[in-house]
What does this fold into?
Amino acid sequence: MNKHQTAAAPGPATVTASTPDTLAAIRAQVMRGIALNREPGYHFAGNFLDLSYDHVGTDYTALSVDVAPHCAEADGQLNLSGFAILADLVMAAAVRAGLPPHTRLATVTMNLQLTGAPRTGRLEGRGAMHGFVQGAAGRQGVSTVNISGDAGPICTGTATFMILKPPKGVELHPVPHRRRGGNPTPEIPGGKLRPDEKKVLATADAALAQVRAHGGSFIARFWGVQAKHAAGGAQSTVTNGPHIGNRVGHVQGGILLGLAAENAIAALTPHWALTAISAWYISPGEGSSLKIRSRVVHHGRLVAVVRTEVTCKGHDGRRRKVFEVMTTHAYRAE
It folds into this structure.
């Protein structure tokens, strides 16, 4: 969180995540995500969240996640990146349900309309496929999602996904459709971690050390942005790594949306609530870091609009645009 955000926004009760038992449980969840990720076809982020694939079919898809200390912000709500991962994977599963199970999908657009209900308890997302974009040279699947939680409907959304071939030299596998309660943590032989796994654990341990020293939320440091407010906007730099990567090594699409949305929120005071997100995925998020810049393009009495761009350096060393998002914010009731 940045200095600009001094007042706490209204919401669920604050979660204390700095007790020794809680921190140990969070670290155990990181290790569980690492162990589960050894089964190919998925990514660390989804395994860490412990998303449950409750139903996947051409009729509809249903995924859910339980909000717990490893993925909750200080106010008890699911971290925005975790929430966007749920929306992204529900809609991707709806498209992939009618395709070969190992099919690679790239998110092209995503639109989420939020109701303002808190992201607490068990969040359940239900998605449906709505065919392919007609007349396009590339096959773009269209799908929708509705997400509800303890307080009722939270979000409705739409997305499009491009069917792509895997990167050269990368073999893709079907996404494992694990369900809640049926997946004990696999044993890591000898406890020996691979290089990417060591990076994930080191990033998690650094975040845990910050929580231990200063309190607050683990996930805000693990997947969050430390945005600096500037006149008319905010900016941040996010270190890239396997803790936010997808199954081909690029930044996972839901995490990308969550990071950008958090940066956009930092461009305004806490009196403003995020209500809508419209996002365009332009190129893969790769390289050592991402730069996120947000600019307030409209600041009315009741509604504000923020434009956010995410860039990275590609393999050729040139900086390029990865992602662009427009967010709408409503002034909170007194």
User: Anything to note?
Assistant: The mean pLDDT is 92. The chain has one domain: 20-331.
